[in-house]
Specification:
- It is a single chain.
- The protein is mainly alpha-helical.
- It has one domain: Winged helix-like DNA-binding domain superfamily/Winged helix DNA-binding domain (Arc Repressor Mutant, subunit A, Orthogonal Bundle), CATH 1.10.10.10.
- The protein contains 6 helices and 2 strands.
- Strands 1-2 form a two-stranded antiparallel sheet.
- The longest helix is centred in the N-terminal third of the chain and has 43 residues, at about 5-45.
Length: about 150
């Protein structure tokens, strides 16, 4: 395969990965909503959690990547307070330094990545890339920055 062929394959893989991550984010968000509603109804009627569903939840089906508004708002705050663009790892550090507890996530990096991808699609965040297309940092879109400035 030629160098150009490798680049095309890499681009196709990255596009498919982004689509799958977005799909997973939507599914995880819906599962999180359903779990919250079911927990509330279970408490209301006094019914315990079904053991088979509990094992799926422990295995990560529901708790894998809940993209809650709390983490989204926290990421917005970290980016809006920064005077420079931040990498995903810097955003994670900023969240931890702000007191955000990421221990409840099976994969905090995936949560952050999914949230950044969603915010980028909503045009709230701008992704900065190298000439080769490698993501190096994220910045709050200046149009939205004024909403989060304090």
């Amino acid at each position: 395969m030629s160098f150009a062929g490798y680049l095309q394959t890499l681009e196709a893989i990255e596009q498919e990965t982004a689509k799958l991550l977005e799909t997973r984010s939507r599914i995880d968000h819906r599962l999180s909503q359903l779990k919250t509603t079911a927990d509330s109804l279970r408490a209301l009627v006094g019914q315990p959690l079904d053991p088979s569903l509990a094992s799926q939840m422990i295995g990560g089906l529901i708790n894998e990547v809940p993209a809650e508004s709390g983490i989204t708002d926290a990421i917005r705050q970290v980016l809006s307070k920064s005077k420079i663009p931040l990498s995903a790892l810097e955003i994670k550090s900023g969240l931890e330094n702000s007191g955000v507890d990421l221990s409840g996530y099976a994969n905090p990096g995936a949560v952050i990545h999914n949230t950044l991808t969603r915010l980028e699609k909503q045009r709230e965040v701008v992704r900065l890339q190298t000439a080769a297309g490698q993501t190096v940092a994220y910045a709050i879109n200046s149009m939205y920055k004024k909403l989060f400035d304090m």
